[in-house]
Amino acid sequence: MVNRGDAAKQMAFFAVVGVGMVLFAGGLPFLSRPLGAAFITLWLLWGVVLGSGRGVGRASIHEQRQHRVVVLQGALCFALMMLAPWEYVTFGGPLPREGPLPLVGVLLFAAGVALQWLALRELGSFYTSRLGIQEGHRMVTSGPYSLVRHPGYLSSLATVAGMALSMGSLLTIGATVLSVIVVVWRIRGEEEMLVEAFGDEYRAYQRKTRRLIPHVY
Hints:
217 residues, mainly alpha, Four Helix Bundle (Hemerythrin (Met), subunit A), 9 helices
């Protein structure tokens, strides 16, 4: 179960960043645009999903090895994402601000948030921001985990990529590329931890599924 204080902090963080996004983008005129309203709505919904379902959890040696890089990457990505609405209203390109591509971005953003919710619901209290084996930890291979081993990471990547396309933001595309690099590295540490904890059971699961994209990777 997620600690109420931690949940409130996560939701408050997303709310504050959302307000900053709107202010950087010029305030109410940004929200009056359909894309602007959809973007901020999905951003706040993402915060609610994470805040209500993701705990902090126990850390492991694998978390300690990655901690500084992950924190720095997270701070940089949030800074780049925060500027996406500003980039949307300030520049006219090179990515389109109207047409099918921004709509695809909104749909990808929404799909990412939905997948995050499904992953959180399926994994329950084992879904944490830290890499670590939690009390009573067991393997979960149902729901989205029957398709890929790390749907939570996939959802985050889809969400950030959707933000980039919906706002035509090169800065957020940069955040997406950086996130892919760190996620692939983080998965390596997480899978080492899970093999140590579950042994042959997890190795069998690895043989049946891909990390992020079914039948691909």
